[in-house]
Amino acid sequence: MTREGNQHDEISYLRVQGRYRGIFAWIFSTDHKRIGLLYLYSIMTFFLVGATLGLLMKLELIAPGKTVMEAQTYNGFFTFHGVIMIFLIIIPGLPATFGNFLLPIMIGAKDVAFPRLNLLSWWIYVFGALLALSSQFMGDGPPDTGWTFYAPYSFKTTTNMLPAVMGAFVLGFSSILTGLNFIVTIHRMRAPGMTWLKMPLFPWTLYGTGWIQLLATPVVGITLLMVAAERILNIGFFDPSMGGDPILYQHLFWIYSHPAVYIMILPAMGAISEIIPTFARKSIFGYRAIVLSTLAIAFVGYFVWGHHMFTSGMSGTALYTFSILTFFVAIPSAIKVFNWVSTMHAGSIHAEPPFYWAASFIFVFMIGGLTGLVLGSLATNVHVHDTQFVVAHFHYVMFGGVGFAFMAAIHYWFPKIYGRMYDKGMAKTGWLIFFIGFNTLYLPMFYLGIRGMPRRYFDYLEEFHGPNIISTIGAVVLIAGLFMILSNLIVSARKGEKASGNPWKGNTLEWKIPSPPPPENFEETPVITRGPYDFN
Ligand code: HEM
Ligand SMILES: [Cu+2]
């Protein structure tokens, strides 16, 4: 039994030095479970801001011409929507929330390797977020470059770029520290007997992600600093009239931002690999193949960034090379999809809310992945680049892929985190409304892109009117579903029915301890003798 006795209510989370109370017992806590929840609540708050901007943009696009906002406002909205969703939501995403809460428990440890550094990573996150947020309220108006901050416009525009660029720069450090912490934790703190090939798949994806956070993030860091230097000192890195090259900016930006999509999707895939065996009551199909696919995605993902620049005037050799490599990186992703489907095959499926999200993840991720191949093919890319087709594609992979996996994860680990269960009927209805809204919102955007509707314009030709009305209705339905899902979870966190330690009959270590987990996670360090998904 732990020193603090066995009371498992809210207070038992506090592995505080007994000198903090209230909010301070949170923001000064070095407990990995608390830090995971600090990230969860911060990310959900910023997500609501980002989603509101998304909905307002769709309301503007319900009809050609000015509807609810001016063109410059729309430019500011898509820029900040993208900055929030990428740097504040989806990059920290699953690693900072569920990774922090569950990684130590899933490998049989008391905490991450560097608990104070972990807390510092959240503080840096908050500081970076406030810096980015301040760009909306100072100087000559919100940044209007898009989240990609492309040169030369990013150092020519008079809008308030510097706090946004520096905010993204600072946030990079929070990501690097999280990756570093997880890599050392996995190398040094696995329980006795947990060899690498007995480690669950979610920690494996955090491991692959950690190396991308560590190696790729510094590249975007220096690139953002160069934009800031361009604005302040006018050095000419990206200015052709001063011997610079704006295409160099695109290469540097995407050398990070494409591997960054694997910081987003790998942990999502890890959560899905945890959930499907539990609800199919069957060992995961091809555990080793999934581990190898994770590492292959993390590695090959470094060499495909040029597929964002097929229309930038690069050489034929570069075009073919990046196109072929893009097809390569699709293979390990496909292997994972095959293995998830094979795990479900002949399983005894328990259709609980986490499984609904996991199964629909496969559906929307497939659409996102396959349209990624359309973008990876040179001929079709030239036609749909910078159109609504691209916007639909990345919403399917990022919002569909990572977003659905996030929902699957929160519905799966909610009873473990709070020791309470949510209303399952309401959860399923919320999922259905969200699922219908999501596809009604983004499917028409593929058609609009193929028909030539560009991205990042608040106006459009009359011929695009019909599909835009359908898409905007979808956005409203999606948001309604979102509120149903969130209100169910928020109310249940305090008032939900008490949950047992293992309501889903899961097999990994987090389901072997009480809910919520006690401060030290384990009374004694567990000794591992079998693989993580041995249901047989
Ligand atoms: C909540 C529902 C959401 C709605 C209604 C929505 C809608 C939109 C719209 C209308 C645009 C601008 C299209 C244009 O180019 O004119 C956009 C851009 C974008 N969205 Fe979303 N979105 C949502 C959620 C998300 C999520 C969850 C993510 C990622 C995690 C995301 C990432 C982005 C990015 C990166 C851009 C590009 C911004 C730019 O052009 O710089 N969105 N979204
Ligand atoms: Cu890419």
Task: Summarize, please.
Helices cover 65% and strands 1% of the residues.
What do you see in this structure?
This protein is mainly α. It has a single domain, classed as Cytochrome c oxidase-like, subunit I domain (Cytochrome C Oxidase, Chain A). Helix content is 65%, strand content 1%. The protein has 16 helices and two strands. The chain has a two-stranded antiparallel sheet with strand order 1-2. Helix 2 (32-60) packs antiparallel against helix 3, helix 8 runs antiparallel to helix 9 (246-280) and helix 15 (424-450) runs antiparallel to helix 16. Mean pLDDT is 95; it is low at 1-15. The site of copper (II) ion has 4 residues, from helix 9. Residues 258, 261, 307-308 line the site of copper (II) ion.
Keywords:
Cytochrome C Oxidase, Chain A, about 65% helix, disordered N terminus, binds protoporphyrin IX containing FE, two-stranded antiparallel sheet, binds copper (II) ion
Task: Summarize the helices and strands and which ones pair or pack.
Layout: H1 24-27, H2 32-60, H3 71-90, H4 93-106, H5 115-134, H6 153-156, H7 161-188, H8 201-233, H9 246-280, H10 287-300, H11 316-344, H12 353-376, H13 378-384, H14 388-418, E1 420-421, H15 424-450, H16 465-495, E2 497-498
Antiparallel strand pairs: 1-2
Helix pairs in contact: 2-3, 2-4, 2-5, 2-16, 4-7, 4-8, 4-14, 5-7, 7-8, 8-9, 8-10, 9-11, 9-12, 9-14, 10-11, 11-12, 12-14, 12-15, 14-15, 15-16
Bound molecules: protoporphyrin IX containing FE and copper (II) ion (CU).
Copper (II) ion binds next to helix 9.
